Amino acid sequence: MMNRIVKAGSVCVFSIVCSVSSAQDTTSVTIDASQDTFTRQVSPTATLGAAAALSVSGVEGMNADGDLRERADAWMQFDTTPFITAFDAEFGSGDWEVVTVTIALDEVGAPRNSIFSVGVGMFEVFWVADDSWTEGLGRPNGQGTATGDSLSFARSEELRDSELDDALGTFSNAGVDGTVVFELAVTDRFATDLASGRSVSLALVAVDANLGYTFHSRQWTMPDERPKLTVTAQEVGEDALPDDMPVDDMMPDDMDNMDDTPVDDMPDDDGMINDDEPDDTPVDDGNNTPAQGMCGAGMMAAVVMSMFMMATFRLSRGRKYHWIR
Question: Engineering a disulfide at 183: which of 7, 99, 148, 253 sits with its beta carbon 3.0 to 4.6 angstroms away?
Fold first, then answer.
């Protein structure tokens, strides 16, 4: 069986319901879908939540026999609780952010049931804000009927909202058997939902009219070939500063382009520079205090020396040679 990874880096596909791995300052968690199904435009009230495979088909999608199958959308839902539990334990409660998100899907290149279309093409993944759906019952050879919140094509059209949903990327299937890992965009609303502890819903919709993409569902008998969502997170917080961030080295302001923010640790109204400001905060950081204390004495010594030299010069006027002993 072929395995392909698309922009997945070092992400692995695991065969258990939830797994955790760490690398340097990041931690990754992989989970299985908690619900999944697919909907068909030609059967707008049918449900297929018990199917072992999901279908994404374009409006002109055909099966291997050349029969028109038309549009089909795949839906998946993931419980984010394992993400919260693992990341809070690793980084502290809420002290983390999502870095990357991938989804691993195991394609069926030649599906045996005629309900599935075939053909390589592009599809788009959407984060759907509304999670109020269930996968329902039904299989390709015995479709169910939508009741309540069970997902049919008609119900899915009600859930989708272009104002609230986010596009997470456009991808292509391979047309052959094998697992492919797709890296999804991490939008603000998607990341917030992943950190909410609630369910996250994804919808896969064909871009190309001739697309026929079939992949195994959570009902499939082989656990490692079921849909899997992997989220990688890293620590954040006020104390998480870069190692190379400049720090104040207490040099005089603006001499070394460092931060050098003046800090006044003197008592209020200590009589230093700008003593009209009660706490001297903007100007006194304690660096120039010795020079300020010595300034008056230095000026007085210079004046006395100047007067002595002038007097000596006047006494020596009239002599041919000066300062010769």
Answer: 7
Residue 116 is assigned to a structural domain of this protein: yes
Distances (CA, A) of 195 to 80, 181, 202: 7, 22, 15
For the chain, counts of helices (H) and of strands (E): 4, 16
Q: Which residues of 239-275 are buried (b: 16+ CB within 10 A; e: fewer)?
A: eeeeeeeeeeeeeeeeeeeeebeeebeeeeeeebeee
What is the β-pairing status of strands 178-184 and 2-6? parallel
Model-level pTM greater than 0.85?
Answer: no
The letter for the amino acid at 49 is: G
Q: What tokens does 112 get?
A: 């045996």
Instruction: Give Cα 58 to chain centroid, integer Å.
Output: 31
Q: Number of structural domains, the chain?
A: 1
Give the list of residues 6+ apart from residue 262 with CB closer than 8 angstroms, or none.
253, 281, 282, 283, 284, 285
Q: What are phi and psi of 308, to 5 degrees?
A: -60, -40
Domain holding 194, by residue range, is 2-235
In degrees rounded to 5, what are phi and psi of residue 165?
-85, 155
Beta strand ranges found along 70-219 (DSSP E): 72-79, 96-107, 122-128, 138-139, 142-145, 166-172, 178-184, 199-206, 212-216
Buried b / exposed e across 123-135, counting CB within 10 Å, b at 16+? bebbbbbeeebbb
| Domain contains 285 | no
Q: What is the pLDDT of residues 203-262, one digit of tens each?
A: 999 999 999 999 999 999 999 999 999 999 999 864 444 555 554 454 445 445 555 444
What phi and psi values does residue 234 have, to the nearest 5 degrees?
-135, 160
- 234 forms beta bridges with 26, 97
d(CA 276, CA 273): 8
Give phi and psi for 281, each to the nearest 5.
-60, -45
Whether residue 105 is contained in a domain is answered as yes
Establish if 219 belongs to a structural domain.
yes
